[in-house]
Write a structure and sequence with these properties.
alpha/beta, Transcription Regulator spoIIAA, 2 domains, two-stranded antiparallel ribbon, 23 helices
C-alpha cells in the first residue's frame, strides 16, 4: 500500500486502514487492564505536581487520543509520569502563589511549551539531543527524583500534617511528626497497607494489578468503616470533560516557563525514546526517534490546551499494556474512553479514596525508578561513570529538581569532553606471528617498532581540548623511538574531525618533526576530514603524497617492501598473504 502524506503525519490512520479483526479483543482487553492503572496514577501524579487530581485524568485522556493519531509506536502508553511531576511542581508552584486555578493554567501552558519544543525538534530531526543525558547521569538523576517524590508523599502516607517546603524540610517535619505522635493511625494503616499490597502483588506478578486491589480495598474500607471524617480523602471529582483552562496567563509567564519546558522536554523524550526503541525491537519493528519526538510533542500540546500538564511515555503502564496483549493504539483510545466514562458516570467513587492510598500508588511507582543495581554495575565497570551518577543525584537533592536537570546535562557534557580530551592512544608495531599492526603496550615482549617509522593511533577527533595532548604525545613517541626515526604515520581512521584549534597543534607538530628531519604522513584518514584540512588552507602543507588509503599501503611504500617481507609480519598461512595482496592493516589493539 502506497504511503500518503496523511499516513506519514497520522500513523494511526495507516494502522486503522490495515486493522485486523483479530486485534480487536486484545486491544480492548489491554485498554481495560491499563485503565485500572491510569486513573489512580493520573490522580496521584497530579497531586505530586501540586494540581487537583482531575487534571491528572485530563492529562491522560487527551494525550492518549492525540498520540493514537500521530504517534509512531503502536503500543506506547502516554500519561502523567513520576519523573516529571516534581519538575512540574517546581516550575509552576512558585508562579502560582497558592492559586489552584492559576496553577492549572500554568501547567497547561507548560505542557504546550514542552510540546512545542518537542514538535520543533522532531521536524528538525533532533532526536539525537537525548544523548545530552548519558545513561549514568540519567540513572543518578532518576534515583534522586524518586527520593524527592518519596519524601513529598511520606506525610500523606502516614497522615502527618506538614507545611510545603524543600525535600529536607518535609522529611524532617515528617520524622518529627511521627516522633511526636502526630500521625493519623487510620491513614498510616491504610497507606502502609496499600503500599504492601501493591509491592507484594507486583513481586508475585499477579495478573490483577496491585494498584487496582489497593485502591478498591482502601476505598471500600473507608466507606464501610466511615473513616472519611478521620483521614484525608480525594473527594468526588467534578463531572466534566477536559476543557481549556488557560485563563489569566501573560507573556511573562511563558518566558518564565521556557527553560523548565526545555528541560522537561529533554527528560520526557529521553525516557520515552528508550522505551519506544526497546518495545519496537521486541516486536521486530523500527520507530523513528524524530517521529516519536513530534508525536509526543503534539500529544503534549493537545493535553495542555485542554486542562492537562506535561506527560511522557509510561515505563510502568506501557509494559502492562504489552503483557495484556495490546496490538495497536486502540488500547490507548479504549483507556481514554473508559476514563471519560468514569468521570461522567461515577465521579463520586473517589469521595472515599484516601490520600494515603494515592501516596502509596505514587511511592510504589517511583520505587521502580531507583536503580541501585545499575549504580553498583557502574562502580564495577567504570568508577568515573559511577561518580557522575552520584553527582547527578547530589545535584537534584542539594540544589533542586529544576537545577538538577542543568547539572545532569553539564555532567554528561563533561563526561564526553573528558573521554575525548584523554582518549585511548596507541603506538602500533609488528608482532611476530600476527598479521597487521598492533598496540605495542599490549605486546611488551613480542612487539617491535617498524624500522625508521613511528606508527601512532589517536582514538578521537582532534579538537581544542585534546590538540595539545595529541601533539605532546606524538613528540614523546618520537623521542622514545630514538634518532633513526624518519617518518611518523598517523593511523587516522578514528579521527573523525579536526577543529581550528587542533589544526594549529597539527601544524606545530609538523614543524617540530620537520626540524628533526621527520616527515608526518596520514593513513586511512576519512575524506570529510581531508576536506576540512583543505578548507583550512592546508593543501599546500599536507600534499596528496602524504596520504595513504591504508596503514599497510603507507608502510609498504615507506619501507620499499611488501609487508610479507618484513620480519614479524608474515602471515602464518601463505594463502592469506596472497589473498590480502600484501597490505598491512592496523590491528584492533
Amino acid at each position: 500500500m502506497a504511503t500518503t502524506a496523511m499516513d506519514r503525519w497520522l500513523p494511526g490512520i495507516r494502522v486503522a486502514r490495515a486493522y485486523r479483526r483479530a486485534w480487536l479483543w486484545p486491544d480492548v482487553r489491554a485498554g481495560i487492564v491499563v485503565t485500572a492503572l491510569l486513573i489512580p496514577a493520573g490522580m496521584g501524579y497530579a497531586r505530586v505536581a501540586g494540581l487537583p487530581p482531575e487534571t491528572g485524568l485530563y492529562a491522560t485522556i487527551v494525550p492518549l487520543v492525540a498520540y493514537a493519531l500521530v504517534g509512531p509506536s503502536r503500543i506506547l502508553v502516554l500519561g502523567p509520569d513520576s519523573a516529571l511531576a516534581p519538575i512540574i511542581a517546581a516550575s509552576i508552584l512558585p508562579l502560582a502563589a497558592g492559586d489552584p486555578t492559576r496553577a492549572v493554567a500554568l501547567a497547561g501552558l507548560l505542557a504546550i511549551l514542552v510540546g512545542a519544543f518537542m514538535l520543533v525538534g522532531g521536524l528538525l530531526r533532533l532526536g539525537f539531543v537525548t544523548d545530552l543525558l548519558s545513561k549514568p547521569v540519567r540513572v543518578g538523576y532518576l534515583n534522586a527524583i524518586a527520593l524527592v517524590v518519596i519524601a513529598s508523599q511520606l506525610p500523606k502516607l502516614l497522615g502527618v500534617p506538614v507545611e510545603d517546603g524543600s525535600m529536607w524540610d518535609e522529611l524532617a517535619a515528617t520524622v518529627s511528626g511521627v516522633a511526636a505522635g502526630d500521625a493519623v493511625p487510620a491513614a498510616a494503616a491504610i497507606g502502609l497497607g496499600s503500599l504492601v499490597v501493591i509491592l507484594v502483588l507486583r513481586r508475585l506478578r499477579s495478573p490483577v494489578p496491585g494498584v487496582l486491589v489497593a485502591v478498591v480495598v482502601a476505598t471500600v474500607a473507608t466507606w464501610a468503616i466511615g473513616l472519611e471524617d478521620e483521614l484525608s480523602v480525594v473527594g468526588a471529582l467534578p463531572s466534566g470533560l477536559p476543557a481549556p483552562a488557560l485563563g489569566g496567563l501573560t507573556a511573562g509567564d511563558a518566558v518564565s516557563l521556557l527553560a523548565p519546558a526545555a528541560g522537561i522536554a529533554l527528560v520526557a523524550f529521553t525516557d520515552s525514546a528508550v522505551l519506544s526503541r526497546a518495545l519496537a525491537a521486541r516486536r521486530g519493528e523500527t520507530v523513528s526517534g524524530s517521529a516519536e519526538l513530534s508525536g509526543i510533542g503534539i500529544a503534549n500540546i493537545a493535553g495542555g490546551a485542554l486542562g492537562g500538564f506535561p506527560v511522557s511515555a509510561s515505563s510502568s503502564r506501557t509494559p502492562v499494556a504489552e503483557q495484556a496483549g495490546s496490538r495497536t493504539q486502540l488500547t490507548g483510545v479504549v483507556g481514554a474512553a473508559l476514563i471519560v466514562a468514569f468521570i461522567l458516570l461515577v465521579p463520586g467513587l473517589t469521595a472515599y479514596l484516601p490520600d494515603a492510598t494515592l501516596a502509596a500508588v505514587v511511592i510504589a511507582a517511583v520505587l521502580a525508578l531507583i536503580d541501585l543495581p545499575a549504580l553498583a554495575r557502574l562502580w564495577r565497570m567504570n568508577r568515573l561513570d559511577a561518580v557522575l551518577s552520584l553527582a547527578a543525584s547530589a545535584g537534584v537533592l542539594v540544589i533542586g529538581v529544576l537545577e538538577g536537570i542543568v547539572v545532569a546535562i553539564v555532567l554528561s557534557l563533561l563526561a564526553f569532553v573528558d573521554r575525548s580530551w584523554r582518549p585511548y592512544r596507541a603506538e602500533l608495531g609488528r608482532v611476530r606471528g600476527l598479521r597487521g599492526y598492533h598496540d605495542l603496550s599490549r605486546y611488551p615482549e613480542s612487539g617491535e617498532r617498524l624500522p625508521g617509522i613511528v606508527l601512532v593511533r589517536f582514538d578521537a577527533p582532534l579538537f581544542f581540548a585534546n590538540g595539545e595532548i595529541f601533539n605532546d604525545w606524538v613528540r614523546s613517541r618520537v623521542e622514545a623511538a630514538g634518532p633513526d626515526v624518519r617518518t611518523v604515520v598517523l593511523a587516522a581512521e578514528p579521527v573523525t574531525g579536526v577543529d581550528t584549534t587542533a589544526i594549529d597543534e597539527l601544524v606545530e607538530l609538523d614543524d617540530y618533526l620537520e626540524a628533526r628531519g621527520v616527515r608526518l604522513v596520514f593513513a586511512e584518514m576519512k575524506d570529510p576530514v581531508i576536506d576540512q584540512l583543505r578548507r583550512y588552507g592546508m593543501e599546500g602543507r599536507f600534499t596528496p603524497d602524504r596520504f595513504w588509503p591504508t596503514v599497510g599501503a603507507a608502510v609498504d611504500d615507506l619501507t620499499g617492501t611488501l609487508r610479507g617481507d618484513l620480519e614479524g609480519t608474515r602471515w602464518d598461512d601463505a594463502g592469506d598473504e596472497e589473498e590480502d595482496g600484501g597490505e598491512g592493516e592496523a590491528g584492533p589493539g
